[in-house]
Specification:
Elements lengths: L1 H22 L4 H17 L3 H8 L1 H4 L2 H19 L3 H28 L6
């Protein structure tokens, strides 16, 4: 049942993004920013945690989950370090995920010989 809930929650997030791309003039970059910002706002008010309880990885993997991670890490760092935590919290909280994305992206580029889109 956990997998089904994750699939449904993640799928709903992706469907919302697809509808925004198809029915509005928003560019994918702007939709990305909206999703991350929405995740930050919902995470700051502890609302995204309820979605994570329901959807698990279906809520943490998409872009709003990244925004939630930024918000949680920044709030924690501000409590521990004060105002400087505003600048360091998001970096510390998401460094592992960003590093993994860069590393595995580079590794796949080495293995699969990427081509430029014509």
């Amino acid at each position: 049942m956990t997998y089904i809930r994750a699939f449904i929650v993640g799928g709903i997030i992706c469907v919302i993004a697809q509808i925004l791309m198809d029915k509005t003039k928003l560019t994918p970059g702007r939709i990305l920013v909206i999703f991350v910002t929405l995740g930050v706002i919902l995470g700051a008010f502890n609302l995204y945690d309820k979605l994570i309880e329901i959807g698990g990885a279906g809520a943490t993997i998409p872009l709003p989950g990244f925004g939630n991670s930024l918000a949680k890490a920044t709030i924690k760092e501000v409590k521990e370090s004060g105002l400087i935590g505003v600048f360091t919290g998001g970096i510390k909280g998401t460094a592992a995920g960003i590093t993994a994305a860069i590393f595995f992206g580079y590794l796949m580029a080495l293995i699969f010989n990427p081509k430029i889109k014509q």
